[in-house]
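Pinned message: reference record for Helicase HerA central domain-containing protein
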Amino acid sequence: MSVTVDMGNDGAGKSVPIDVEELLATRLLVQGNSGSGKSHLLRRLLEGSAGLVQQIVIDPEGDFVTLAGPFGHVVIEASEHSEREIARFASRIREHRASVVLSLEGLDAEAQMRCAAGFLSALFDAPREHWYPALVVVDEAQLFAPAAAGDVSDEIRRASLSAMTNLMCRGRKRGLAGIIATQRLAKLAKNVAAEASNFLMGRTFLDIDMARAADLLGMERRQAEQIRDLQRGAFLALGPAISRRPVSVRIGPVQTSGRNPNVSLLPLPGADAGMRDRLLAPVAHDPPPPPPPPAAPRIGSEDILRGIARPILNPQRAEEPAPIDMEAFEDAAADALAELVADPETAYRAAPVLFQDFQMRCRMRGHPRPPVDLADFARRLAIARAGIDPRLSEHWQDALDLAAELPEDMLAPFLLLARAAREAAPCPADSTLALVYGTRSPGRVKRLLAFIETRGLIASRIDLSGKRSIALPRLGWTTAPADADQEAA
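Predicted structure (tokens):
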């Protein structure tokens, strides 16, 4: 089941969605001159996916801090904290899966690059058990991944560029999906831009930027002129998460807005004869300076960490959560796991990605807060992949106790062998074990069985007809003989 965000309509009035799961794997590049609607586009995407995936926004102008109210993002004002604190926040963000906005407003260009480099590096270096899926949005990306040296020192520029390159080139395996927006492709480092597979190109006027945008969209150079004619809020879209062919999309409305109002014309005051007198009237005494405004209380680092650890989705509606009907939840969770296992493609997807899918399926069944963490979900998924109803796992406690001696990724194939042995069913074929193990390599399955056998948990036997049977000596269970090379049913 795909999860999409409606970005707006094409020229025919048809909705243009973005597939969030595909976006996590393929990344996104947004380009457009100032005033083309890039921030509006990013805001539409962030608002539409706020309840679906963790979001981390690097905001050089403080435009996205308004997401905090209706969507519960934690705002971190970088100017109020040290680099060490920012890096510490980043590691906590990955651990607690909090959606945050890192506002770099008030910092000069060099400080912004240094702060972003440390923050992105800490996200990238998080422990493997915290590699949850997250959208990492970087606005004005040309500031952090410049194509050429600028006024900042080479050391800071290299650190920032390295962090952005890691995000776009190697972040996918760590669950980090880069979404970068830039005013000019010519100012953005090519090795950063080249890693995106999805593109949303807005209005631009310079020939070099139009030519690069046309190349990325697979358009001929003579077609690049249409990029100059795009209206504000209109973009040309292409990519596996959006469309296989270039499509024009007008971005839909948003709920929040930036802190800076749009520049528009205001009527001037009427000219009158007294204007000169009012402006040049003599001043007898300089007025006393106004009293300084009371200093706003500084938010300490511990307060930020507490906010990250326990984010409130809607502070205005915070209330005691209703008690969970565990029996109804277990039924819903079993149905959701059965749907996941029935899809053959899920066998080759990472557990954190499937965990997010599982949570959505539970929400659709009326359980918005599934009382399951990632480790518990991985165990339930392994049991379901073995063909065992997770609600009856207590009947398989002996096998589960034996499996405690194995790595977590081997639980599903071991339980499949245990189920076949307990029921005296034919021994599962290598192709069936490979599907449950999440691999397409027959060699990995043979190494898996050899490893489990060296631990004394199974004993395999091949009879004179070449059929294999596998026993669990400690439990006294044995499968029926079967051909190891038969195809999975």
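Pinned by admin. Summary line: The chain is about 40% helix and 15% strand.
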